[in-house]
Design goal:
Blueprint: H1 2-20, E1 24-33, H2 37-45, H3 47-53, H4 56-59, E2 64-68, E3 77-81, E4 88-97, E5 101-110, E6 114-125, E7 128-138, H5 141-149, H6 152-173
Antiparallel strand pairs: 1-7, 2-3, 3-4, 4-5, 5-6, 6-7
Helix pairs in contact: 2-3
Length: 174
Amino acid sequence: MFILGGLALSIGAFSIYVALKPADYLISRQLEIKASPEALFPWINNSRKTNEWMPWAALDPAMKMSFNGPEEGVGAESRWESPGKMGVGSAVVVESVPPRTVKTRLDYWKPFRMTQEAEMAIVPAKDGSVVTWSVRGKNNFVGRLMCVFVNMDKMVGGSFETGLANLKALAEKK
């Protein structure tokens, strides 16, 4: 009986710990690229071009992509369906400010429901531009629980670093 009571107390304390973790999160990475904001903007504002440098296809080559709405700017949408790591979801451009910022609403349906806001920002720099890729959202209890065991900043941030390096290679090759 003492062991069951201790186990229940431990589970309760752990649940309180998880519940008190911050719900809001922000993951962000940036990279300097030797290209003007005007040269970079099409790569972040066009769903099909964005798909060329983002790292997601490499994570799941079986993923199927589709595109809806305009090719670029507000309303441009990409959808994915993956039998593997990427699940099912969509990305819709909700704000586009040439040649500086593109904001996207990300909706995930599988493996679990979640919504995030992603932003790609371009700031002129001495030798080109600094591109910042960020995502923000709110974790529910299950999301906070996952973050106890998985470093989401490292995992998602690592993918952002890979994507930004891909964008740099494309932009600087031109």
